[in-house]
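Board notes, transcribed. Complex of a protein with acetoacetyl-coenzyme A.
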Amino acid sequence: MDYQHLLTEVRGSAALKTGWITLNRPKALNALNDALMDELGDALRVYDADASIGCVVITGSEKAFAAGADIGGMASQTYMDAYKGDFITRNWEAVRSVRKPVIAAVAGYALGGGCELAMMCDLIIAADTARFGQPEIKLGIIPGAGGTQRLPRAVGKAKAMDLVLTARMMDAAEAERAGLVSRVVPADRLLAEAQEAADAIGAMGLPAILVAKECVNRAYESPLSDGVWFERRMFQSLFGTEDQKEGMDAFANKRKPVFRHR
Ligand code: CAA
């Protein structure tokens, strides 16, 4: 895939490979403009449709995952521009419609839309250099890509209010304590750690992976009793897959399963 603001590469050692996407606007600290978000949506759709891919990783540079939506591109917008152009949802929701797991591998700044993009992913692996924040208030605006909604769900109201109202940044250790990130690793281990997580996912049966992601996400969208009901139905449905027979037979015979993703 050939993009102006992204680098893409397929890597990994598991049966299902990993689709890597590196945000690549280094001079603007990977500020997220329309062109980049269009390309990101396109790359995600390509990987999601590729049967050889089990997982996607989105990463940035050592200095910045992404320093937010592109301020230059926003500065002169009017309300009518924003409303009629459906700013910022138009090309930002692509991440949420990916069915395969998406890992954010974050080093350096993940601010504003950068933090929101990371939170749209299924899990965040952070370098010890990562810094998370929603500093939009300093620009006279508020987070516009889910920050006021996903941050409190991830870290609770107290820290979310703190970050959104004061524009304070959270370092990686605090983000891990608060539950925003899954793991923190030394910066030079970040990409290897993300690949290992992606390989672990890529070694599983894809139907169960897709169902597991759907069920965990359901926890955010429904009351507990509905979520538990949904999980039970999805759990039962996996007994209709060949992978379930293979996984349990492999366990019984003390061998590695060979999943066929059906
Ligand atoms: N948009 C456009 N350009 C940006 C940018 C952004 N969000 N963040 C950084 N840049 C550019 C800078 O303008 C600068 O460009 P020039 O060299 O051409 O001047 C370059 O990236 C390097 O930035 P700095 O010189 O500022 O680097 P620094 O190390 O001194 O500071 C920083 C780093 C603290 C991240 C600082 O750049 C910063 O505060 N950036 C803005 C962060 C921000 O406010 N993000 C929220 C954006 S609004 C949003 O995201 C809305 C939403 O909810 C979707």
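Residues 28-29, 31, 67-72, 88, 109, 111-113, 116, 135-136, 139, 143-145, 147 surround acetoacetyl-coenzyme A (CB under 6 Å). The mean pLDDT is 97.
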